[in-house]
Amino acid sequence: MYSVLVCDDSLVARKQVAKCLPQDWQVAVHFAKNGSEALNSLQQGKGQLLLLDLNMPVMDGYETLKAIKEQRLDTKTIVISGDIQPEAFERVTQLGAIDFIRKPVNPETLKQVLVSHQILAGDESGNTDTYELDPDIRDCYQEITNIAMGQAGDHLARIMNVFVRLPIPNVNLIEVSELHMMLSDIESHEQVTAVCQGFLGPGIRGEAICILSDSSFEDVAKILDIQEDVDDQVQLELLMDAASILIGTCLTGLAGQMDVNFSQGHPVVLGQHRAITDIIGMNRLKWRRTLAIELSYGLEGYNVQCDLILLFTEDSMITMNKKLSHLLEDF
Amino acid sequence: MMDMLQTVDVGIVVLDREFKVKVWNGFMESHSGMLPSEVRDKSFLSLFPHIDPQWFAKKSRPVFELKTRAFMTWEQRPYLLKFPNYRPITGNEQFMYQNITLSPLTSANGKVEYLSMMIYDVTDIAAGKKQLEALQVLRSEEEEQTNRQR
């Protein structure tokens, strides 16, 4: 059982902090009225996580942090304080606190901090509201993707003589861990090829991942009207061409509606040009969440299964929301 | 401004729908040894007979018809145009590895009359990557050797 120690000189504050712990989190909660009490408990192994107030009698938060450092006690400390001067924040992080929460604590903030430090597993049981997209914005993104897809489908139908079954785009904010799962999934399936391509516009950055099942290949060759024999190298090139067309048409549609132009980098085949394990192995990714628009394509009369995932960085959303503000007003 | 086009270290070729050469920049001139006056309005495919015309037509079709870009990467095709290496004296590779982007050029009436071909020299990247792969192979062979001796 994971143990949490709440250290504060005020009874009300202790209760309040304890109440803010996630309801579904199975933990043993212990209390301490000052730093020296907290140290006693920690020495007895009560408190893998310490929620610490700064201003207390007998032994304050700073001294407690110092003592924890000196005695090499095994605990993670999150400071909870009304003192939010930058200097206080600086000092406690130097003394080894992993984070700082401002009083009064609310459950969302606490949960977010716990998740971000991997003390609490990410959302298995329903998302926290803080990670949810605003429904209006979600609808708006869904709508522009729909329009972009409609245009792309129309082009493809006219040029390639295929009818595209238009999927409903799925818009979500996803965590790093979810992307990792998705990529590991691609790796464990030998039957898919994933092509990844970066794109870039003013204030908007992202990557498009196109996942084609290898069983689609014969039909892709038919659609692209390839008669000659193909070796593996050519097969890969074909898949890249197909991916480029799907990614390109969709991006063109989105860019048109936002009145921007995207530059595109050269496409890479995941797992061939770049080992997926390398990507997954980078556990210190520089971002936490990304906006993902997922589309599942099907082509009428062909056995082509393809998933297109557009990932946008979180900061791109600011620009995108501005560009789409005229649409958002209608909602 | 035209100087930019001449001095930039990227090959720039503009082709019309019949693949006739309209623009041929300094990079192309230096590497192919053909002057812009020699190639203007000639068919690109006749200048480079080793390119499969059918394949090239298919590759450029989405650019004209769908206004999307098409890409060729050195991993699939080491080069489209066989140019000698940039560093003839110290370079290890025999030819220039190329990444190529075909982009549509939309005219005022919204139609795509021309495509631009950008040719990037990625020889150094390719050589580095090949070296790295060779080392990895070497290392795994050595590991096998030591495992066998145990």
Question: What does this protein structure show overall?
Answer:
The complex is a heterodimer of chains A (331) and B (150). Chain A folds into two domains: 2-117, Response regulator (Rossmann fold, 3-Layer(aba) Sandwich); 135-330, Chemotaxis protein chec (3-Layer(aba) Sandwich), CATH 3.40.1550.10. With 331 residues, chain A is α/β, with parallel strands linked by helices. The longest helix of chain A is centred in the C-terminal third of the chain and has 27 residues, at 232-258. Residues 124-130 of chain A have low confidence and may be disordered. Chain A has twelve helices and 13 strands. The radius of gyration of chain A is 26 Å and the shape is elongated. Chain B has six helices and five strands, in the order H-E-E-H-H-H-H-E-E-E-H. Chain B has a five-stranded antiparallel sheet. Chain B has a single domain (10-123), classed as Beta-Lactamase (2-Layer Sandwich), CATH 3.30.450. The radius of gyration of chain B is 19 Å and the shape is elongated. In chain B, 26% of the residues are buried. By secondary structure, chain B is an alpha+beta fold. In chain B, 41% of the residues lie in helices and 21% in strands. Chain A binds chain B through residues 155-156, 158-159, 224-226, 233, 236-237, 240-241, 244-245, 248-249, 252, 264, 266-269, 272-273, and chain B through 58-59, 61-62, 65-73, 75-77, 99, 101. Chain B: InterPro entries: PAS, PAS-like_dom_sf, PAS_4. Chain B: It holds the Pfam family PAS_4. Chain B: This is PAS domain-containing protein.
